[in-house]
Specification:
- The chain is of the alpha/beta class.
- The protein has a domain at 72-162 and 169-189 and 196-209: Rossmann fold.
- It has helices at residues 43-50, 73-78, 96-106, 115-118, 134-147, 164-179, 191-197, 215-219, 222-229, and strands spanning 5-14, 17-27, 32-36, 58-63, 66-67, 81-83, 152-156, 183-187, 201-205, 208-213.
- The strands form two sheets. Strands 6-7-8-3-9-10 form a six-stranded mixed beta sheet, sandwiched between helices. The protein has a four-stranded antiparallel beta sheet with strand order 2-1-4-5, covered by helices on one side.
- Helix 3 packs parallel to helix 5 (134-147).
- The longest helix is centred in the last third of the chain and has 16 residues, at 164-179.
- The protein binds adenosine-5'-triphosphate (ATP).
- Residues 14, 19, 37, 39-45 line the site of adenosine-5'-triphosphate.
- InterPro entries: AAA+_ATPase, ABC_AA/LPS_Transport, ABC_transporter-like_ATP-bd, P-loop_NTPase.
- GO terms for molecular function: ATP binding; ATP hydrolysis activity.
Length: 234
């Protein structure tokens, strides 16, 4: 199968500073890619460009046969890319049900899974999102993304704030989505989570890719060790 997502030399700068600087990679349908690297290396900015939060200053992004790098975020969402946020972006004054209903109302694709059942949210549907703990808000953020039936799901530090049991459960769920054909990019500091999800990671530093391969090989790479891992990958 060919590339479903083709990112070619994308750049994003803030003033004169390049947060992402000539990043290229491809992703197949149903594939999971880990995007890792030190703080400030450009991972979230990459996700922000792919989801249309920022327009790229250079380069192209092709998704499912369409060039999307100049599209606004709502159009990108409509064609099947959706995401979670490092700090979940649910509506705090709405209930969990209302939050999911808003996403369902805007969905252009049938969800692959029922987000409520899949993420086991039945017990908190009447709670206001603002009263949820971090793990619950992250799960709700994911539910809202899944309600849109994404073909490409971008998850930004989903495991941060989850306990080991919740992390394991999240791993199983993301693997299930990938088996359903959903491509997933996982931005993550918790490398054991990434390791459980995929053999393919890109290590970023200063806006550029410095390594592509599996985490075990990354741990043996001198540059990755120098800037990021300190010799301890998984
Ligand atoms: N809106 C913005 N305005 C100015 N600088 C920004 C903006 N967003 C990100 N940056 C800068 O771009 C660089 C990359 O940030 P980014 O959040 O993409 O890194 P990251 O790899 O996701 O980091 P972390 O792992 O800490 O989340 C950082 O130096 C950051 O300060």
């Amino acid at each position: 199968m060919g590339a479903f997502l083709k990112v070619d030399q994308i750049s994003k700068r803030f003033g004169g500073f390049y947060a992402v600087n000539g990043l290229s990679f491809e992703l197949k349908q149903g594939e999971i890619l880990g995007l890792v690297g030190p703080n400030g290396s450009g991972k979230t900015t990459c996700i922000n460009v792919l989801s249309g939060i920022y327009a790229a200053d250079g380069g192209t992004v092709e998704f499912d046969g369409k060039m999307i790098h100049t599209m606004p975020s709502y159009k990108i969402s409509n064609i099947g890319i959706n995401r979670t946020y490092q700090i979940p972006k649910c509506f705090h004054s709405l209930t969990v049900k209302e939050n999911i209903d808003v996403a369902l109302a805007h969905a252009k694709h049938k969800p692959q899974v029922d987000p409520v059942e899949f993420l086991e949210l039945q017990g908190i549907m009447g709670r206001n999102a603002g009263t949820l703990n971090t793990a619950q808000q992250k799960t709700l953020d994911l539910a809202r993304a899944l309600a849109t039936g994404p073909k490409l799901l971008l998850v930004d530090e989903l495991a941060a704030g989850l306990n080991p049991e919740e992390t394991e459960s999240m791993t199983t769920k993301l693997l299930h989505l990938s088996e359903q054909g959903v491509s997933i990019i996982v931005v993550e500091h918790l490398l054991s989570f990434v390791h459980a999800l995929t053999k393919r990671v890109i290590v970023m530093n200063a806006g550029k890719q410095i390594f592509e391969g599996d985490l075990e090989s990354a741990s043996k790479d001198p540059l990755v060790n120098q800037v990021y891992l300190g010799g301890d990958a998984v």
